[in-house]
Amino acid sequence: MIGIVIVSHSKQLALGVRELATQMVQGQVSIAVAAGIEDSENPLGTDPIQVYEAIASVFSDDGVLVLMDLGSALLSAEMAIEFLPEAQQQKVYLCEAPLVEGAIAAVVAAAAGSNIRQVMAEARGALLAKATQLGVIISPLSVVNENIAVRNPEFPTKEIRLIVSNRLGLHARPAAQFVGTAARFQSQILVQNLTRNTRLVRGDSINQVTTLGVRQGHELVITATGSDADEALEALRALFANNFGEDNVALNSPPPFHHQVTPATHGELSGIAASAGVAIAPVVHYQPTHITITEYHVDDPEAEWQRIQAAIHTARQEIQAVFSQASLQIGDTEAAIFDAQLLFLEDPVLLEAAYGRISDHHINAEAAWQAVVDEVATSYRTLEDSYLQERVDDVVDVGQRVLRLLAGNALANLHLDEPSILVATDLTPSDTARLDPTKVLGICTTSGSATSHSAIIARTLGIPAVLGVDAQVLHLADGTLMALDGESGKAWVEPESHILDLLAAKQSAWQTAQQEARATAHQPAITRDGRQVKVFANIGSINDVQVAVASGAEGVGLLRTEFLYLDRISAPTEEEQLEVYQAIAQVLDNRPLIIRTLDVGGDKPLPYLRVGFPEANPFLGWRGIRFCLDHPELFKTQLRAILRASVGHQIKIMLPMIATVTEVHAAKVILGEVQAELNQAGISFDAAMKVGIMVEVPSAVAIADQLAAEVDFFSIGTNDLSQYVMASDRTNPRVANLVDALHPAVLRMVQQTIQAAHAAGISVGLCGELAADILATPILLGLGLDELSVNPQSIPGVKQAIARLSIVESEAIVASALQQDSAVHVRELISTSVIPPA
Q1: How far is it, in rounded angstroms, from Cα 105 to Cα 94?
Q2: Residue 151: pLDDT over 60
Q3: Residue 610 has pLDDT above 90, yes or no
Q4: Is 444 a catalytic residue?
Q5: What distance in Å separates the CA atoms of residue 330 and residue 429, rounded to the nearest whole number?
Q6: Which of 9, 453, 743, 825 is catalytic?
Q7: pTM for the model
Q8: In whole angstroms, how far apart are CA 343 and each of 26, 173, 812?
Q9: Residues whose CB falls within 8 Å of the CB of residue 502, separated by 6 or more in sequence, listed in order
């Protein structure tokens, strides 16, 4: 592949350009820097020997392109070439293209497989593209005719046209999948909305793709130029064919009632009905910390760029944490909102603009970042499509997060002493995802809409919400009694007794209706041909178990115990854990409770336990059972608490991240030691308590027969198993679409695990997100799973799906599904199978 050399008087400038260019192509192109001189008094300058060494370090028979800044840089480059052997001299090209724009254009072209002439043409044409964007006319004579050669490369441009069938078009989640898929390929992907006659935009820019304003029925043209153009277009075509994994019936769509309510009568506030339900509670104001930005001149632009890079890195970690927590509370589908936020931080157009403002105008990082975020926000606000206009909330959410980090401000926490109604100007998606429905009984804001991501999250959490009310509510004193009706879009401040009586009656009727709707969920899930499949709940807190039982859970198939260990300065004590485990078991009233031992480390570190070194690949690192075996006292404390809680309850232990039989043996030895200590102390526990393992690592599938001989049950974690089987990080938006548990490769792993478990006479469940996907229910039944464990909200739907199916039908679907070549084709197969309607 072609090598790139950057020659500059300023070492900091050259390193900054290299870093920016490297990010554009994820390190696929070799880039060397020859910049500055070894003189502490006057470090600006160029050295021919440095240039020679740089060329030699990236030399390729495909060619080396040398980009230079001013004056002596050209002389140094020309002299450096003379030091090379004559055969190599013929393959080194000096290019007069602008340093920053030229380097970016050159590396992108090189990564796409272009030859040296095409790479030079792209570099030289970079200034023309910038000038066009700024509305500046450049004489065509100033651009070398080789730019035309790009239009006729050895890789011709391929094109497809597609009609968008998604109900809401390319909103945040499908746009994130589109960009993540486009970025996987070396080819340059461009996309145009033919229906709206937009310009062509970059397929790897989340903001440019989203602001195309693509809605259902719009026609797009997608072009790809490069060595893998066909593969890229086919991957994008598959996304559209699969509706980006979405049903065309909107999940958690705005309530069917009217949004524009009748004018308010005396004592009422009128707003937008955004999330159904009645709330009566004192108000608490929420005001996020305002960040004031001052623009000032900086002498070291590179240092400012590094500050932005550091803030973006931390922001990415914070958003991933929000995504993980939101996945537990509202499920992966709605939590995917935050995938788009992650891509915003990686948007090359945004990063280039921020870098350009810092380097060209020598302004501070905060001012540069605010300026580019404002530009993107404005581009959303000017869209004709009102739904897409509302996506500006996500842009502002991410922008403010980075600004807060640049300013060194801590993340604002909302601590409520009693259940309350939250009053605010607006809530960001991140704010809303952090709310505790047991403490925040309702939401009342002066702005927002029923289709905003914040409203969607509120509906998923079951928090009644009235938005867009008069700003007078912002002047209410904390503790003022408020009532709101999320169905009519009205709120009352210090409501009179007859209003409270009416609302209490409505609240009671609504709760009765909900209970009736859930009534069937409390019945066993039995297929049409008589097979019962247990449906358990995945929970991550005490609050979740109440919801699970009310939703018809037959037990808890996965208690994630991490919540006990996070957001603390020290590990929870044995007594603290015992109290929680007993409380959860008490609510379950002798239903099974499977407690997964601590699953942190690597990507989920505990701040009070120092790892000692950063891990390059945390998902392949020191996590799960590996972490616990290396912290035996921490492990023993948890095991003691679980054992002590087991008296009089159906509690089972489950070990996470098991990859070897040796790990099971080691864990059982420690468990035996704890049991012996409790016996010696005369403390009771269930001596017959069952021990199982999570099957989420391919090695565990390969030796499932050996593992089955060691434990009492298996639980398959398809979230992790899918990413390990497909070698794709499910938190990385660029490859997350590969992590599909319905891929035949993953399904075959699941089948192999179930067969090994049943051959050994032990039960096997599945607790990954796949279990809640009703489309996948016939596959899971046909594979022979004994139980499914899902988020509490999904239990009624899963039970209904099971009741509509038969094992015979499901086994036939599985036999065909295992022979498919992609997850897309598996989904198509299920969709076209004859399954009785609900």
Answers
A1: 15
A2: no
A3: no
A4: no
A5: 12
A6: 453
A7: 0.51
A8: 14, 10, 40
A9: none
